[in-house]
Design a protein that fits this description.
about 290 residues; alpha+beta; two-stranded antiparallel sheet
Length: about 290
C-alpha cells in the first residue's frame, strides 16, 4: 500500500526531519538514507520499519540542520600578538601604522569557532530523540496505509461479489448443460459398445466413470463457493497486527485453479464464457490483493 508521513524534532544544537514513503510490493524492502556521520542509525531504523510494516517498498530519509545560522567568531590572539611588533616597527620607521580595523581584517585574526565534540552521553540522548521522531513518522505512515487499506477492502469486496455472481450463473448453467452432456455421453457410449473386441466389464465401467467425471463441474463450483467464504472472512480479519496479504495471494491462486478446471470441463459455450469472465474477475481481484499487507 502507498503512504507518506513526516515528523520533525529538535534540540539546542540542531533540528531534524524524518520522512517515510511506501509503495506496493510483494515483500518488505526498506531503503534508508541518513546524513554522513549518522550511518549508525541505519540498522535500527530498518528494524523499526519492520515493526510497523510487513509488506511493500518503504523509503525513509533523515535530514538534519544546525539551529545556528552562523558559527560564533573568536579572535586569534596568538596571531594578533605576533602582529604587534610589526606595528611598532612601522611606527618607528615613520610609516603609518595599521588601524585596529585593519588588523582585524588580516586573514586568520578572526576565526569561526568550532563546535565542541559531543560526548557519548550526548550522542546517546540524540539517538534516542531521533528514534522517537522516527517512531512518530512510522506511526503516521501506518495510519495512512490503514486508511488506504480501508478503501481497498471495499474494492476487493466488489470483486468478491462479482465472482460470487458469476459462480451462481455457472451453477445454473451447469444444470442446463446436462442435456448436452447426455447427448455426447450417449454417442460415446455407443462407440464403446460397438468396439471389437468388446470391452471387459471392468474397463467399460472405467470408461463410463471417466466420461461422467469429465463433465461434472459440481466439485469445482463447491470449492469456489468455499473460497468466496474464506475471502470474505480474510477481509474481516485484516488488521495492522494481523496481515492477510500473503493468505489472500495464495487464495487467488486457488480461485484461478478452479476457474481453469471449470473451463476445461465445460461442454457448453455459455458456461465457457462464464468461466472466462470468472477468470477475468479473479485476475482483477489478484491485482488489488498485491496491495494488501
Amino acid at each position: 500500500m502507498t503512504g507518506y508521513a513526516r515528523a520533525q524534532g529538535s534540540d539546542e544544537r540542531r533540528r531534524w526531519v524524518w520522512e517515510a514513503r511506501s509503495v506496493n510490493g510483494r515483500n518488505l524492502e526498506v531503503r534508508c538514507r541518513v546524513p554522513q556521520g549518522y550511518e549508525r542509525l541505519e540498522n535500527p531504523a530498518r528494524a523499526a520499519v519492520g515493526t510497523k510494516v510487513r509488506r511493500g517498498n518503504v523509503s525513509i530519509s533523515l535530514t538534519i540542520a544546525s539551529e545556528r545560522q552562523t558559527k560564533p567568531l573568536r579572535i586569534n590572539r596568538t596571531l594578533l600578538a605576533e602582529l604587534t611588533p610589526l606595528v611598532e616597527e612601522m611606527r618607528k620607521a615613520g610609516a603609518t601604522p595599521p588601524t585596529a580595523d585593519g588588523l582585524l581584517r588580516v586573514r586568520g585574526v578572526i576565526e569561526e569557532e568550532e563546535e565542541g565534540v559531543e560526548g557519548e552521553d550526548a550522542l546517546a540522548a540524540l539517538d534516542k530523540a531521533l528514534a522517537r521522531t522516527l517512531d512518530e513518522a512510522l506511526k503516521a505512515l501506518a495510519t495512512a496505509r490503514a486508511a488506504e487499506g480501508k478503501a481497498l477492502a471495499g474494492v476487493i469486496e466488489g470483486h468478491i461479489v462479482e465472482i460470487d455472481t458469476l459462480c451462481r450463473r455457472a451453477s445454473e448453467r451447469a444444470q442446463a448443460q446436462i442435456g448436452t452432456v447426455r447427448t455426447r455421453f450417449q454417442a460415446q457410449l455407443s462407440e464403446l459398445l460397438e468396439r471389437t473386441p468388446a470391452l471387459s466389464e471392468e474397463r467399460f465401467a472405467q470408461e463410463v466413470a471417466l466420461l461422467v467425471g469429465k463433465a461434472d463441474v459440481r466439485e469445482e463450483l463447491d470449492r469456489l463457493a468455499a473460497h468466496i467464504t474464506q475471502a470474505r472472512s480474510l477481509l474481516t480479519e485484516a488488521r495492522p497486527d494481523n496481515p492477510v496479504g500473503r493468505k489472500f495471494d495464495f487464495l487467488c491462486q486457488e480461485f484461478n485453479r478452479e476457474a481453469n478446471t471449470l473451463c476445461s470441463k465445460s461442454a457448453d459455450i455459455e458456461l465457457t464464457r462464464i468461466g472466462i469472465d470468472l477468470k477475468g474477475a479473479i485476475e482483477r481481484m489478484r491485482e488489488q490483493v498485491q496491495n494488501v499487507e
